[in-house]
Amino acid sequence: MPASERCSKSSDATKKGAIEMETLNDNGLTMVENYYRDYGYRARALKQAGKRIMGYISAAAPVEIINAAGFTPVRIKGDPKEAVTKAYGSMETLVCPFLLNAFDLALKGKYDYLDGIVIPHTCDSVSRTYEVWKRNFPLPYYHFLNVPHLDGAPSLEFFTQILKTFIRSLEQFTGKEISKKNLDHAVLAYNELRQAMRDLYDLRKPDQPLISGIEMMKLLVAVKALPVDESTALIRQVSKEVKERKTSSSQKPLRVMIAGDQIDDTALVEIIEKTGAQVVMDDISVGSKLYYADIEVTHDPVDGIAEYYLEKVSLPTFYRDKGGSYDENLELRFGHLKRFISEFDVDAVILLVYKNCDPYGFEVPATTSYIESLGKPVFYVEDEYSSSSSSRLKTRIEAFIEMLTQERR
Amino acid sequence: MAEERKQRMTATAAAAKVPKMVRANFTANLKAKEEGRPVAFSFIVNCYDEILRAMDIVPAWAESYSGICAAKHDAGRFLEKAESQNFSRSLCTYATCGLGFEYWRNELGGEMPPNAPWGGIARPDFILGTGQMLCDPRYKWPQAVQHYMRDVPAYIGGFYWPPYDENMDQREVENYYLKYAVEELKGVIAFIEKQTQRKMDWDKLEEVTDLVDRTWDMFIDAYELRKVRPTPMDTGDAMNTMVPLAFMLGTQEAYDFYKDLYDELKDKIERKEGVAEDERYRLLWGAGLPPWFALGDFQYFNSKGAVFPVERTYREAERIDRLHLPKLSDPLERIALRWMRYWTHWYDAARKRKGSIPEVERLIEYIEDYQIDGVVFHKAFSCRTWHSGIVLQAQILKEVYREIPINHNYYKRCGNRYKYQ
Ligand code: SF4
Ligand code: SF4
After folding, report:
1. pLDDT confidence band for B415 (50 / 70 / 90)
2. B13-188 CATH
3. Which of A124, A290, A295, B340 could form a disulfide with B384 if both were Cys (CB 3.0 to 4.6 A apart)?
4. How do residues B303-337 score in pLDDT, each as one tens digit?
5. Contact state of A358 with B91 under an 8 Å Cβ cutoff
6. Chain B within 8 Å of A314 (Cβ-Cβ)?
7. Is B156 helix (H, G, I), strand (E, B) or coil?
């Protein structure tokens, strides 16, 4: 069913019908495809049925709090296939190309169903464009969340206070208290989602992964615009479907891990998988960065949420240094890569960093040399957030994979 | 020659002293290193200069050194070294120039790269950065540079101020921001104490904090003399006279510099000596880092009767009485609150004018106080922190204030050089 049809169907639906969870009936992967192709259509339907939808930018936004306030959180994403046309007049081109693209989509009406946007202080590109979003894409609610770059006790206490201010601001906006029960429930729901996602990631571990990198990428994106329970159900359904797959080939593909920030499109994975290699793991901010740790259930749920985002989400916008040696700090920053490479039997890593991205850009030599120290080849590429550059990317990645494949022979 | 004479005539004597001061700053870090005194890589406008001075730490301003390399047209080879390490050309070039330098020094086993401008910059004993104040490179650069000096420890102190929200008075949350900032400043002290085995001299810190309060006042008092017509000093000079404020805040020398500048400007005003022979247009340098390689362009403006009596860039201070600070005895609280109130100073005004934002209020204040006819916004690529949101500021300024003429220009890195566009 084309996207437009689905949307009009949703708008015709009775309120009750639209807010019911879409039935999965063994078609999880098909639904993933639909949700991926028409990102946000479910959220739009929910909005039409009277539900509240909150957009947010980056992996550092505490979706648990947004959920506890009664919103469906929707991660703002871009579309590399869409040329930026409207944003240039209001956002400087020296910012992150992903952000420019996402903002452009917003100006073109892609996010017209949002009640508000939460923008955490992740990087200069994001924080310095907060007012640009607010002025040019006006919505009833905007909130800038000052996420510290540091961890450690003072930062944790500080972030807890910031989250409490955020909670108060949401309460003021909705006119409804966010209770401890709401927060506890949200924490558990997202932990459940994380567990379901980790279980699915496990199915990539066998020599013949049960789910392709492209399918996984679509799922990672799809769940970013769904209510949490629907996401969890969808992930479980997909796990169930792919577990039933029979592996046919006995040849083990070249196993690739992709790394970067806002990779929220299949273009890169398609390039890799068309060569016969397979993406078996990721270290990206719509992917594993968010799923490999749970929020601890704490007496005050805000404590657990603060600790999760500051200490357990491995974004380069968090500065990790516990006072040890440089090598010890490297382990704090990149130790998870070592685990992933070993557990997912990764043969090579492709690191994609967007132009104008300071947090990732400054890490490139440290990241690549860390991976190389594990005996794994790494291919670093800087790119725009645009499919128009993908032919150049394609040639380079194909050459890299070809070289590795030759070496294996 | 004629041009040079003209330059000398229009520049303040104070501005002319600055290159020597900058040079002395660099000699100081190299000398301190030779003598075995602790040297720290740090960033200007770091919010803890008082601590460095009270503990006798010699700062080596890493970003300033990149500026020197650029001014000497000798940044290219360091930038190329950084690129060979896969540091993107789109990153802050102050940082990448420094990274290329350190990569090279590391390659040479710790030797200074050949013919380093001004003899180079000392290899630090430790590195001090900040979280938020002001940009991502302030915590990512220390981490990145450690890759080439792995034995050098780094410490990042978090310093945040309440974000602007038209529906919330920032003072409602100021307490926990202040508490955090103070904890982080204590962290900076503890780190330095550990690295140097020196104890903080709290009396000295108090003295330096008093001195900085006075310097902020003196800086503003001197700069506000530029309101007079014809203006006795413009942005061309201010890009030099900012040095003591940004690089030597906690020193007596900085205070004395602004006192001298104050006296000099007073004299010029008495003699009705303006920057331009025939001052016709008064412009505000609304945003952006200056084109260091082309500061002479300000003279071109002057020759057309246009002057810049005020600029937003590097004006990182405000008169203390305007910040309405409560009486505090703890110097760390005083330092933290002074900065916090500075960053949030234009919030109240913004809330009062529908549709405004603090940065625009600040521009409006300058436009009115300095009788400005037009605003120039200048963009330098690769520094997101100062150059994102400029278009918006220009839009809002016109919307909430008046149809004031605005000019946008930018310069761009072009190979190893920069090009005006
Ligand atoms: S890709 Fe980099 S610049 Fe863009 S939002 Fe992420 S961290 Fe910021
Ligand atoms: S990003 Fe801008 S403010 Fe930060 S170090 Fe670079 S030039 Fe300076």
Report:
1. very low
2. 3.40.50.11890
3. A124
4. 999 999 999 999 999 999 999 999 999 999 999 99
5. yes
6. no
7. strand
